[in-house]
Write a structure and sequence with these properties.
The chain is of the alpha+beta class and 286 residues long. The chain has 2 domains: 153 residues, Ribosomal Protein S5, domain 2, CATH 3.30.230; 124 residues, GHMP kinase, C-terminal domain (Alpha-Beta Plaits). The protein contains 10 helices and 11 strands. The strands form 2 sheets. Strands 1, 2, 3, 4, 5, 6 and 11 form a 7-stranded mixed beta sheet that branches. The chain has a 4-stranded antiparallel beta sheet with strand order 8-9-7-10. The longest helix has 19 residues. It starts with a strand and ends with a strand. The relative contact order is 0.19. The model has no long low-confidence stretch (mean pLDDT 97). Bound molecules: adenosine-5'-triphosphate and L-homoserine. Adenosine-5'-triphosphate binds next to α1, β4 and α2. It holds the Pfam family GHMP_kinases_C.
Length: 286
């Protein structure tokens, strides 16, 4: 059995902790069979190979009596780079328990479990459902709604350095001034309305108008402004910080992708740039 989970790009500008989209990088979790101890084979650097691996801890939190397994993980989602690697591991763990214990979890139940673990649904919900998702928690439970998917590609600029979500969250203020909070919320509300009504001229302006997190994180990722400026000169639609960064996502018309990528290379940035498209399936068995 192989479980496949897509990467996800959260926030899309003003949708802090509530909007995310599944994109075409994947974690594949193969179940090789029962084992004396939990064993996780992977080539993902320092991540644990035993029962402390996040995939296993998640699976055991769903089904504590799950017998140990020998697992193999292959993933092209870069870890701590703002493309939802932790969410891919959590979603893989939920699905592992679901399959091995035949729990028959609904998609909504998977979103609830994974969001409780991650704390917000912006990465786990698209990783489960596929596509573009808006969600939050209310009275301790999570709701996630699927928005229409826009017909564009992404140029993901992936810097050579990593940035832990915890560190990027530490850069945020504890409080926002009341009038600033009202304006930030109005931007986010109108952004969501523009997505659901497919008013993309408005959506892409608002995607670059976040007031909740990008102003506080831009010093950590100087490439955000550099690429945003390149995008304006080379026909890109909008650029935002993917999740907690440091990946910078640019939405591009499919026929303008090549020229935008060339402009980023010519800009002398030392990260890599990867063409991504939305994933519509979410977690699935392959
Ligand atoms: N394939 C994996 N298997 C097990 N654990 C993983 C895996 N990928 C990521 N993790 C865990 O998630 C942590 C990284 O989470 P973090 O939230 O900092 O980054 P991210 O999820 O890549 O970024 P973002 O949440 O901004 O999209 C790793 O340190 C590790 O503990
Ligand atoms: N919404 C989250 C995504 C990363 O978990 C953030 O920006 O911190």
């Amino acid at each position: 059995m192989i479980i496949q989970v897509p990467a996800s790009s959260a926030n899309l500008g003003p949708g802090f902790d509530s909007i995310g989209i599944a994109v075409s990088l994947y974690l594949k979790l193969e179940v090789l069979g029962p084992s004396d101890n939990w064993q996780v084979d992977h080539q993902l650097g320092k991540l644990p190979h035993d029962e402390t691996n996040m995939i296993v801890t998640t699976a055991l939190s769903v089904a504590s009596d799950l017998p140990p397994q020998h697992l193999r993980v292959v993933s092209d989602i870069p870890v701590t780079h703002g493309l939802g690697s932790s969410s891919s591991a959590i979603v893989a763990g939920v699905e592992l328990a679901n399959q091995l214990k035949e729990l028959h979890l609904s998609k909504e139940e998977k979103v609830e479990i994974a969001s409780q673990i991650e704390g917000h649904p912006d990465n786990v919900a698209p990783a489960i459902l596929g596509g573009l998702v808006v969600g939050t928690h209310i009275n301790g439970h999570f709701a996630a709604l699927e928005a229409p998917l826009f017909p564009y590609d992404f140029a993901a600029y992936i810097p050579p350095y990593s940035l832990k979500t915890a560190d990027a969250r530490a850069a945020l203020p504890y409080q926002l001034d009341y009038s600033q909070a009202v304006h930030a919320s109005a931007i986010a509300n109108t952004f969501v309305a523009s997505l659901f009504t497919k008013n993309y001229d408005v959506a892409f302006k608002l995607m670059e108008a976040d007031r909740f997190h990008e102003p506080y994180r831009k010093e950590l990722v100087p490439e955000l402004n550099q690429i945003r400026e390149l995008g304006k000169k080379h026909g890109a639609l909008a650029t935002y910080l993917s999740g907690a960064g440091p990946t910078v996502m640019t939405v591009v018309d499919r026929d303008k992708y090549e020229s935008f990528e060339q402009a980023v290379h010519a800009g002398g940035l030392d990260g890599k740039i990867v063409r991504l498209h939305p994933d519509v399936d979410g977690v699935k068995l392959i």
